[in-house]
Amino acid sequence: MKLFKTLKTQKGFTLIELLVVIGILAVLLAITLIAINPARQFAQANNTKRRSDVNAILNAVNQFMADNKGVLPAGITGTVSSIADDDGADPAEADICTSLVPQYIAALPADPLTNNGVAVTDCATVGYATGYTIVQNAPDNRITVNAPQVELGDSVSVTR
User: What pTM was computed for the model?
Assistant: First the structure.
């Protein structure tokens, strides 16, 4: 009888109980991360910005054309061209910045993966790039602005 009186009842958790709780928390965290998938969320946000950007560029080009009796900004041809500073090194660049900024659009939007997504406000910047392309379709003279760096297998292109 004396033996039972000398043992104290211990309060607290056993190692097994702690490991079970940690295991359950790890499983719940893994399920939450899989459900949220932050990389996919960021890619979807980037694609949404691209859709907005190509619409803004095309609206500015159309407004320029409306004010100039249908004349396109210099640099837009029937060849797919990157909207970038035409420094003469690459013939496939359409420097439309000076035609559009700031009268038709406050800043020339840039792809989220180009220039860290910072829009071009100074057209005199040498070597600027937007990450977008523009082309005049030959049969119907419609303008297409495209975002070639699109993520998740989407397609971001607007034609008017």
Answer: 0.80
Strands of 90-156, DSSP E: 93-94, 129-136, 143-146
Q: Which two tokens stand for residue 96?
A: 């439309």
b/e burial code for range 52-89 (CB count within 10 A of at least 16 → b): ebbebbbbbbeebbeeeeeebbebbeeeebbbbbbeee
CB 128 within 8 A of CB 84: yes
Q: Where are the alpha helices (DSSP H) in 11-160?
A: 15-36, 38-67, 97-100
Q: Return the closest-CA partner of residue 159 out of 149, 151, 138.
A: 138
Q: Residues 30-62: pLDDT tens digits?
A: 998 888 898 999 999 999 999 999 999 999 999
| DSSP code, position 157 | E
